[in-house]
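An example makes the point: we let one protein speak, the chain in one-letter code, the fold tokenised, and here it is:
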Amino acid sequence: MTFGPAVGNVGMYVAREMLAAVPDAQRQAYLRMVEEISELKYQLGVEVARQLPRLLAEQDQDLVARYLTQVRQIAGVGWKSGVEVAKQLPDLYEAPDPALAESYVQIIADATQGPPEDTETAQLASELDGLERALREMEPKVKRAQELKALLAARDRRDEKRRKHAVELASVLPPILARLRPRYRQIFLEQVRLVAAADPEASLEAADTLLDLLNGERVSAEGASEWVARGLAVLDRNKEVGRGYFRLGSKYALEVLDELKEGLALKDVARVLKLYATALSGRDVAIRGTHQMEGLDAFGADHVVLPPDMRFFDEDEKNFIAYKVATAHGAGRIEFGTYDFSLVDISGEVDALRARYGSAA
């Protein structure tokens, strides 16, 4: 059973009964000596902890100092020999001849370390030290070389993937250009080139999307440039998110597209059109966009339904006139009761038709 943590790390080597065998006045010195020896080697500390109580009991400080010195001497050339010497020395100190222990220690020291090294051995050892030192100095360079190899291998894999998508782009561009309206080809090629330089995979998505946007006149040439510029900023931050942008697979891409969309927005002229419809029909009329009609009747006596933007003409003034024409048409239907009609109002005619043609009429 060890003495416990009260004596620090020495408690690992000192059994309670060992400490109990040491006079109270010498216990701190005992623990200190055991700790000093154990710093050389754990096994040495264990053996010295066993033997010291016996020596301390003799009240001979010179003998204790001699013991520790001789143990350290042997431990300096071989700790295993030092453990055995630490075990045997106390018995040799009891011999009649005081020089016996000294001779014993010298014999074990000579046996452990052997004869002095010859010149060739010293040279070999020196060469080995130099090589080991050079190897230690090379370790950071070797590590850096391995890191560079890994980085270059990863880039080579990316380049191979890039080349694969470039081949695919070379295949799909001509058919897309054949479908694209001629007046948009120059701006289309300029924008696809910008995306392809950044990421060929994203350019495949951009080519398909720009074909639809330009042919469908959802954006102008300037709008297409701005839409691509914003997508490139996204692509620079995150490749996958950027590719989603160019395929219109992100909310942000749709928001930018809506912002850049050409034409006159209904929300910008709805108030004027409401006043216009109310004046024409003689009743309060609301203006609603087709995107606001979920769950509502598209035809009613209290509202006119119009597209959310008018892009039929290049000029907003003409698009506003188109809005006014559509509004006037809707207001006319409201004014003349198109949506107020009910079969109940012509019940006599309905009865006559049923009498003549049967209940299926």
Summary: The beta strands are 264-265, 286-289, 303-306, 309-310.
